[in-house]
Design the sequence.
């Protein structure tokens, strides 16, 4: 007989796959489930990290964590679409203005996580979500299942966050990661958004290991200026700075934000929180 693993009814919440309703307040929530036969420590560790980060900008609120029937359950506030969803909605290309608006908030989120002495280890478009309602213009960081507390000891480590597309060079080399690695991954995310793809996307390899090596070699052998050819020089400057950092070097987050903010101002953009998807949604509403 197969194990159907029926999801539980969480006390106080009405389960609906990844979404539910708080019966007391009628507020929609997000529910993350791990069966007790699987390793519950990942979800337990994630809940612990959310508690450590609680109250920070762009950190989802956790309403409850515990065991219900055969499941470990994490109940969080419900957020809006991911940046990957919005990227697809916008025909897989973001304007420079939208990329710079994202960069400013994303660097701030990463700084807050680092200030709490954690490394995210899995920075990618799917792990950035926009808020809803009055917080619809706020960028949130989610999925701390691979996050770890920074130990401060440089040594050989295991690779984290096997999204090869955005992995740092240290990640590919299985070196212990530091503050710079989250920021390098963010750089690849920004490049993906403004170009529509990354140079190593679609490359074929016989195995996952060979694909890892192929992408690692492309990243290692491509200079920031070549990687960012045709883009404003601030993007190459970002990669040049981030890749120059040593294990113990704490990034100058303010410098990175200023780098992009100066570009933002020089192009005459306005801090009006109007993203590409905002304009497209408005156009759809007007057309209807």
Sequence:
């Amino acid at each position: 007989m197969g194990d159907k693993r029926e999801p539980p009814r969480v006390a106080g919440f009405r389960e609906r796959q990844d979404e539910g309703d708080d019966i007391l307040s009628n507020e929609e929530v997000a529910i993350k489930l791990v069966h007790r036969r699987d390793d519950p420590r990942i979800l337990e560790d994630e809940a612990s990290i959310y508690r450590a980060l609680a109250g920070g900008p762009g950190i989802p609120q956790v309403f409850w964590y515990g065991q219900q029937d055969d499941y470990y359950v994490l109940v969080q506030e419900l957020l809006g679409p991911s940046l990957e969803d919005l990227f697809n909605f916008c025909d897989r290309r973001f304007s420079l203005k939208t990329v710079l608006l994202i960069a400013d908030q994303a660097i701030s989120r990463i700084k807050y996580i680092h200030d709490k002495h954690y490394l995210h280890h899995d920075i990618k478009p799917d792990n950035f979500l926009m808020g809803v309602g009055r917080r619809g213009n706020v960028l949130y960081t989610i999925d701390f299942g691979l996050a770890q507390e920074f130990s401060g000891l440089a040594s050989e480590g295991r690779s984290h966050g096997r999204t090869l597309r955005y992995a740092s060079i240290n990640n590919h080399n299985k070196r212990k990661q530091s503050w710079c690695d989250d920021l390098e991954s963010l750089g690849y995310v920004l490049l993906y958004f403004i170009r529509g793809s990354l140079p190593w996307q679609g490359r074929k390899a016989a195995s996952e290991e060979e694909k890892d090596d192929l992408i690692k070699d492309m990243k290692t052998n491509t200079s920031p200026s070549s990687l960012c050819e045709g883009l404003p020089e601030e993007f190459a400057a970002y990669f040049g700075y981030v890749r120059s950092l040593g294990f113990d070097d704490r990034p100058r987050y303010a410098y990175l934000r200023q780098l992009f903010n100066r570009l933002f101002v020089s192009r005459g953009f306005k801090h009006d929180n109007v993203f590409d998807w905002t304009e497209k949604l408005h156009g759809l509403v007007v057309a209807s």
Observations:
- The chain has two domains: 16-77, 83-278.
- The beta strands are 13-16, 19-22, 27-35, 62-68, 71-77, 118-119, 128-130, 139-141, 148-149.
- Residues 166 and 185 are 5 Å apart (CA to CA).
